[in-house]
Amino acid sequence: MSQEDILEQLADSLADDLVIDWQLATTLDDQSETVIQNLAVLGQIAQLQGQTRVFSDTKPYGQAVDSAFRWGHLHVLESIGSGVYGEVFRAHDDVLDRQVALKLLKTEVKSVVESMRFIEEAKRMARVRHPHVLAIHGADVHQGRSGFWADLIEGQTVDQLDPEQVMSGQALFLMCDQLSAGLAAIHRAGIIHGDIKPANLIRDDQGNYLIMDFGAGERMDEQGHGVSAWQGTPLLMAPEQMLHQQSGPASDIYALGATLFKLATGRYPVPGETLEAIRQGHLSGGISSLQVQRPDMEQPLASLVDDMLLADPDKRPNTAQIQKRLRELEQLPQRRKNRRAVISIITLLVMGMVFSGWGFFRAEQEKAQALVARSQAEAISGFLQDMLNASSELGRGKDITVADMLDIASPEVDQKFADQPQVAAALHHALANSYNALRETGKSLQHAQSSLTIKRGYLDEAAPELLKTRLEQIQGHQLQGDHEQSLVLIDDYLQAAVPVLGDDNRYVQLARKHQINNLFSLSRFEEANAILEQYFAEIEDPATATHNFGFEILQAKANALTFSGDYAGALEMAHQAIEWLSIYPNKSPMNEAGIRTVKALSLLQLGRADEAEKLFQDVLLITERVYGKDNQEYLETLNNLSTAQKALGWNAEALQTNQQAFALAKQIYGDQINLTVIALGGNLANLQVEQGELQAGEATMRETLAMAIEHLGNQHVETLKLEYNLAELLNNQGLHQQAEAMASQTYAMKAEVLGEAHPYTILSMDNWAISLAGQQRFAQALVKHRMVVEGLASALGAAHPYTWLVMKHEIESLQSAGELTLAKQRLSDMLTHQRQTLPVDDLQLQANEQWLLDLQDLPD
């Protein structure tokens, strides 16, 4: 290669890539020394000012080209980036029918060397296929212009991100994870990228990072080294490159670490305003530590970045080791959660205490007082040490859960403390409490009974320590769904406790709260309300309260109003509970999640599904943070969210959420039938119907209804809901006689259980009216339609979506019966309310406006 060709290639490299191939520069003769020095100065100025090649546009981003043109099979649409020699366009690939990014050599550039470099860069990039590496689809020369085309990434290069905003540990983790995975793919292809820097990294509009621009890349030799010693961006170059030693994959690791360091601190690991200053910084070992600069960051992550910046390339982690350390770091929160859980359960077992702030325990549980004396605590301490030693036998690689710890402890209690009954009783009580919190109610009831048996040997029935254990037994039956047995135990409990302790005693109040919850579950709302009114009329001041019982009663009252159909009242009571909680100093996250759920359910019934959906999303996040994703609380929230999404008409989202919930239910309950499984089955059936799968929906609904009748009885609200849905489905399929039989039966049962004025009862009459109209029995149908419209308007308001729904059904029946004058009047009345409530572009409003026009064209 001639001296002129070498100089031209060096100049091209600097101008377009801001890098100088010093290996090539050493082949120049002595007379070119001044030129080399000048190139070095230019390189320092450009790189230290942080200029970028890909997006240092001379045209505004997205500027349309003066005239559209074709390059091969690509239709060029607009210019989106420009360098000295290359230009990037948005183009349409006519073969694959999609938009791509096309990088072309500028028309004024006639350099054969530059043309070859374009093609070589494309070849290097095309060797790598990875989600976090820009995908190259082809390279070619058309009309004398070299170029290649790649995925069109909508996003920003990392150097375009806010320079004043340092990255959080979580964001840095994501970036390191994705880019090290992409870099691993590059290295597996036998390529050294050579210039990892913010300008060559892009974050797409989904928040994912990709590596691009292989202009400085090169093939590795057989030893895994690069040919060029010095190539890259000085502030991000590895020490071996700055000191003119051999580069390799470890040099890319250093550049990635330096990039992460810069984004986390706002400064480079080895700062300097000149090449010499940077070189001296490396020689003196002046690399800053991220652990020192960001003490707030997770120490393992900061340590990983520091190791990527080690002076010795052999000591830097490779991409596989980086990924391994990131996976370990990813598991840290769960490990810490497990460790906290283990510490908490140890404290619980030693002291007999329940921590309301610990995720496994509900807010309704109180802190118990110490159950054992110091000598007894010492005995328990030895027992716990044995338990911890035994847990290690489960294997170091296994995540030791609280359930594992409890299962280890349980069989040993009676054997080790046969001569210390008070210690054994305390441990059985704590285990019962813990298993209740984990919803392992069968085990909880066993330990509660063991504790009671022992305590009855030395305590009276009204002794506080015995009463607390009886409450665990009551709650165990309640959580197990055995509400009748729980109520029997509560009656016995109150007979023993009230004469001795009085109605205001905390344990008595807790028993009555369990009584209310059981009655709600059995749809015995009047009895539950009577207890609330008689014993909980006054609510403790939250500012001075020592526990959250006042909040729990407000929440119970909101639930009572919801069950009775007074959704506006329930919403107001939920607001009162939220206000109480905002003042109370020791609230827990699950308190907030619980009352937001009550509020969201009320909003859902009031037709404000958009607000309800947002609340359920909030509850889902709280529940995940506290309990994780594999528990009943998370499952119930998914179920509620699916209902809200369905109410909004988001059928695809609702179906996806419901399927997630149903899969989780199978994981949690297996073949067990309970209220949650039944509710999910009903939802699944409704969603199948919404998707037009009527036969599948009917089959699912009948199967779920059979489960509900068997498990809950024919008077339970969930059973009645399923019967309503089945009658509605039968009407939709034109099976009006079957629908009539189901609807009339459901209406009678709802009227008995809920009362004739309850919205659920009224809606069952709506199904009945539709079935009668479907059989041409219009006189009977129209009477019932009018009762339904007036009943729902009274219960929910004339502008409620449910009221509009039943009005629509009445109008349809009037139209079928030939009562067009009355049909027009009813539709006009409904539109009056909708025009006052809905925006003019609402599809429902527009459809009804057209419906009225169509009716007016018909003769009366």
What's a quick, concise take on this entry?
By secondary structure, the protein is an alpha+beta fold. Helix content is 61%, strand content 7%.
Describe the structure.
- The protein is of the alpha+beta class and 860 residues long.
- Among the domains are: 3-48, no CATH class; 63-151, Phosphorylase Kinase, domain 1 (2-Layer Sandwich); 170-330, Transferase(Phosphotransferase) domain 1 (Transferase(Phosphotransferase), domain 1); 334-522, Alpha Horseshoe (Serine Threonine Protein Phosphatase 5, Tetratricopeptide repeat).
- It has 36 helices and 11 strands.
- A 6-stranded antiparallel β-sheet has the order 1-2-3-4-6-5, with helices on one face.
- Strand 1 and strand 2 form a beta hairpin.
- Helix 5 packs antiparallel against helix 11.
- It is flat and about 100 Å long.
- The protein starts with a helix and ends with a helix.
- Residues 12-20, 39-63, 337-378 and 388-400 have low confidence and may be disordered.
- Keywords: ATP-binding, Kinase, Membrane, Nucleotide-binding, Transferase, Transmembrane, Transmembrane helix.
- It comes from Marinicella sediminis.
Structural features:
860 residues, alpha+beta, Phosphorylase Kinase, domain 1, Transferase(Phosphotransferase), domain 1, 6-stranded antiparallel sheet, 36 helices
